[in-house]
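re the bet — no i am not wrong, look at it urself. input seq straight from the record:
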Amino acid sequence: MGEERTPVTVRAHLNQACTLLATIDLDGAAKALAAAAEALSSTGPLSQTARSEIRRNVRQAHSLLEAARTYHGEWSRRLGCLMHGYTREGQPASLGNATHWSLEA
């Protein structure tokens, strides 16, 4: 039972991370992913089934992270264009490292 407990814990943390990513709670997802990594680092040899399930969970989390990265990148590009126009090369201007914006009607 103890041998399978850690893979169950890893999968639980990965599932939690996926749920949080789907609801755009990136801070919570980061904590759940860190907990999954910590639990995985303390595991011994895993069964083929456990490895397959963990891989499936990691692929799902990866897919959600890629979707969040794409979404954020597109909004950054659009906001850069709206707030700063275009560069001389015709590309949307960068937002730089701004983390807060103020919008007025």
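see?? The chain has a mean pLDDT of 85. told u. also The chain is about 70% helix and 0% strand. so pay up
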